[in-house]
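INFO  loader      accepted 1 record
INFO  loader      residues=108
INFO  predictor   begin
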Amino acid sequence: MSREDGQAAVELFGALPVLLGVGLAVAQLLAVGYAAVLAGNAAEAGALALAARADAQASVRNALPGWSRASASVRVTDGRVTVRLRPPSLMTALSRKLEVASTASVAR
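INFO  predictor   done
INFO  writer      dumping tokens
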């Protein structure tokens, strides 16, 4: 093993934490985007349930996958359904700060 090979290995190990951090940041951004899509779909399902005079909150919960139901909050007021959803995260405080919301409404 030459000196250049050893130096390349040291540089790789030095860059590894940076690459890991960038990878985690990208994964977190993807999780936020996915949570926004889920919240939008769930809010729309709730608004459609309101239009059919059904239980909007139950429709919202049914539209969400199991893992996200615990971190979702639903508010139904005057023909509007608002869904707030915390994306999955390794840090709970970060998940709270990255919470997404979506609203759908129906004319009565």
